[in-house]
Amino acid sequence: MADIIQLLPDHVANQIAAGEVVQRPASVVKELLENAIDAKATSITLVIKDAGKTLVQVTDNGVGMSVTDARLSFERHATSKIKSAEDLFNLHTKGFRGEALASIAAIAHVELKTKTADSEIGTHLTIEGSKVISQDPAVVPKGTTISVKNLFYNIPARRNFLKSNPVETRHIIDEFHRVALAHPNVAFQMLHNGSDVFNLPSSNSRQRIVNIFGNKTNEKLVPVNEETEILKIEGFVLKPEFGKKSRGEQFFFVNDRFIKSPYLHHAVSSAFEGLMKNDVHPGYFLFLEVDPHSIDINIHPTKTEIKFDDEHSMYAMLRATVKHSLGQFNIAPVLDFERDKGFDTPYEYSKKSPTAPSIEVDRDFNPFKEKPKQGNINFPFKREQSASWESLYIGLNDEKAAVSNLGDIEFESEEVTGSLFENTETESGQLTFQLQNKYIVSPLKNGMMIIHQNLAHQRILYEELLKNITVKEAVSQQLLFPLQLHFSKPDLEIIEKVREQLEHTGFIFSEIKDETIEISGIPVLILESHVVNLLSQLVHDIKEDVPDSGFSQNDMLAKSMAASMAIKTGISLNKEEREHLINQLFACKEPSVSPRNKLIFTTMDVSDLDKKFI
Ligand code: ADP
Ligand code: MG
């Protein structure tokens, strides 16, 4: 019998391999994005048309390829990433199989433009169905652009299998999310049919999550952090109440590579046990780092499955770490002024048994009611033998007394009621006074709180504005006579850019043209006379710090407006205004720091005061 075994021609082998690597446009997106990351790009743009069926294009500013490498990169098993089988166990790159480009080129029209940093001129290569059509020198920037057109043009059956555009787009966005989440320091942009889908500046992991999933995500995140000899875990889980019936956001990354692992998923879910209903799934973004020798990623052509040497320890550690983070988050209250009473005794006294000193409080003394007599100014205590010293000491130590003592100090318009050391039963917390028209002082159970009025108000307005901009439900006050404001052309363009967000805060622009804006409605939160300042400040801030992504733009806008609108230092506030400000502040999500990260309030308790008198 004649020999019947033959080697498959390359282009057939490539087509078969393509079936494994490329199932849909999203697979192309994943491979191209990963190659760009491996090429050390710091900025990557993904452009798709018709859910990737017509075009998937990735542009990076990475290392690029030489003329020869450009050609070789489309050969099967052509990779720059491993040289021997041994390297497989030491992987720090995404790719290593050298199949992706060869596979893609077998089933699409591919165009490559690339240039390395040290070559003067780049190269432009076109391939169709594994055949090189042309390769020419080209003037291109450093980096690589690969365009993949008409995917599966030569395999109609596969093309017919593709799902509707929304479904394929969903898959592409999923892949985009995975790569973008794993590399927050890389800037990403995504455009679909000419419009922006994502614009993610280089940031940290938390900001990246928020930039992708929206600013509401920020408050849902519980940080997770653990490092042991064999495993480092970082990232976030979503608070139990934000679990979803559908799968929702579940991301595992191992050594910066997205993976699917039902086993590890189970570990996380079991950490949520008792905190969520059975049919609800937890959300998480977990970044695991392990020794590359201890895993095998080679078991699946699309490299989303992974095998760990020591799966059981992984499971146990992950579960314990997530449980611990959830626990910490549950016990840690936001604000807690309750303290251990033991601390209230000044250190020097804490170990001594009290002995009676020879001074006594002059219980009739009130510095506000009568002018102290000469000689009595600095020392309002009468020296007397055998007095009851304890009463003074106990008084200071008593919570109620401490509160009312502070509360009774009133410098503003209010009438002075009690004596300084009188133990009146006033309602604590409602007593406030203003210091230098700058700080609001409010008694606490055990001391006092000093609040910076301007920063506090900025925080309140910022949260309110951010909510309005994102939820889009602010109320406007109609102006009887529309305001006409003049701005330079470039400034007007800036305002035009944020017009939509401004409208969400309550602005109504009846006309923007030439160098004039006509405003017929303004947010209820501001005065008409402040509008000019506010808009000028906003234009200035945007020029200083040009935010590109949707979220940081909203954030910046809210910060700038809050700063313009907030009650300034020097403004006197009445009792109601002070109380209102405090109540609003503590209804904020983040009452302790201003939108620009300054401390809003500080507290001083009796033991701090006691230390001053030792
Ligand atoms: P792999 O990533 O597994 O090595 P690919 O087929 O994806 O295989 O890519 C083949 C080779 O082409 C890579 O090893 C790399 O040398 C080169 N390459 C691919 N994409 C890029 C890019 N965006 N920038 C620079 N080099 C690239
Ligand atoms: Mg690759």
List keywords for this structure.
binds magnesium ion, 614 residues, alpha+beta, Heat Shock Protein 90, binds adenosine-5'-diphosphate, Ribosomal Protein S5, domain 2, Ribosomal Protein S8, Chain: A, domain 1, 3 domains, 8-stranded mixed sheet, globular
| Global Rg | 33 Å
Q: Helicity level, as a percent range?
A: 25-40%
The fraction of residues in strands falls at: 15-25%
Given as residue ranges, the uncertain stretches (5+ residues, pLDDT < 50) are: 331-429
Q: What number of domains?
A: 3
Question: Structural class of the secondary structure composition?
Answer: alpha+beta
Total beta-strand segments: 24
CATH topological fold name of the largest domain: Heat Shock Protein 90
What is the CATH level 1 assignment of the largest domain?
Alpha Beta
What is the CATH superfamily of the largest domain? Histidine kinase-like ATPase, C-terminal domain
Residue-averaged pLDDT: 79
- Distance N terminus to C terminus? 109 Å
Largest sheet report: 8 strands, mixed
Q: State the CATH architecture of the largest domain.
A: 2-Layer Sandwich
Shape: globular
Spatial strand sequence of the major β-sheet: 5-4-3-6-2-1-7-8
Q: DSSP helix count? A: 19
> Which small-molecule species are bound to the chains here?
adenosine-5'-diphosphate, magnesium ion
